[in-house]
Amino acid sequence: MIRKLQSKDRKEIEKIIYQIENFTDEEKSVALELIDEALNKPEQNYYNIFVYEEDGKILGYHCVGKRALTDGVFDLYWIVVAPFAQDKGIGKVLLEHCENFVKENKGRWLFAETSSKDSYIATRNFYMRNNYSIVTQIKDFYRVGDSLIVFGKYFKT
Ligand SMILES: CC(C)(COP(=O)(O)OP(=O)(O)OC[C@H]1O[C@@H](n2cnc3c(N)ncnc32)[C@H](O)[C@@H]1OP(=O)(O)O)[C@@H](O)C(=O)NCCC(=O)NCCS
């Protein structure tokens, strides 16, 4: 089942984030910062975090939010599945949940920013297989040799 993040999930989520090999140390701490921001400020609505739970265990989560100054553009900030639970369709279920959240909130665009690094190939394939297209790329964005690839999906409103 997919439900909203709760304080009791923090420990398990932290463990999952630290198991993701393609995340740098900086990415891991930023991912965890967003979890804390959402937990410490329950009134905020820019980070909406939903967890995938099976038999009382957290297997993954996604974090989505509306982009400021737009009336219908959303960012998928993070989507993460525990390594041992990957390749079983959980990512797809989380992504579909995220898309439904966007549609329910009258969103028309959902963007996911990714790196061009080899270690992100599985992530890029994942977006392509789920019918995302590359809407833009910025060369040497993160660092020289590491470009930004923005995947997007448009929802007719
Ligand atoms: C990207 C990510 C969220 C995908 O999650 P996932 O649960 O592995 O995703 P799925 O299982 O839906 O799909 C992954 C692959 O498994 C395959 N698959 C799905 N169900 C399957 C099944 N029952 N049996 C065999 N293979 C299956 C899919 O074909 C898919 O292949 P593809 O990626 O080449 O299209 C996960 O790999 C992850 O957490 N990566 C590290 C973090 C990351 O990079 N996040 C994105 C940036 S924030």
Explain this structure to me?
The protein is an alpha+beta fold and 157 residues long. The protein has one domain (2-154): Gcn5-related N-acetyltransferase (GNAT) (Aminopeptidase). It is 32% helix and 36% strand. The protein has helices at residues 10-19, 25-40, 90-104, 121-129, and strands at residues 2-4, 48-54, 57-66, 73-81, 109-115, 133-143, 146-154. Strand 4, helix 3 (90-104) and strand 5 (109-115) form a beta-alpha-beta unit. The longest helix has 16 residues, at 25-40. Residues 20, 22, 78-81, 86-92, 122-123, 125-126, 129 line the site of coenzyme A.
Dominant shape: globular
CATH architecture: 3-Layer(aba) Sandwich
- On the 0 to 100 scale, the average pLDDT is 97
Which CATH class?
Alpha Beta
What helical percentage do the residues reach?
A: 25-40%
The CATH topology, please?
Aminopeptidase
Tell me the total number of β-strands: 7
Q: Quick one: CATH superfamily?
A: Gcn5-related N-acetyltransferase (GNAT)
What's the helix-strand series? EHHEEEHEHEE
Q: Widest sheet: strand order?
A: 1-2-3-4-5-7-6
- Name the ligand types: coenzyme A
Query: Can you summarize the main beta sheet?
Result: 7 strands, mixed
Protein name: GNAT family N-acetyltransferase
Enzyme class: transferase
EC number: 2.3.1.-
Domain N-acetyltransferase: 1-156
In short:
GO terms for molecular function: acyltransferase activity, transferring groups other than amino-acyl groups. The chain is α+β, with helices and mostly antiparallel strands and 157 residues long. It contains 4 helices and 7 strands, in the order βααβββαβαββ.
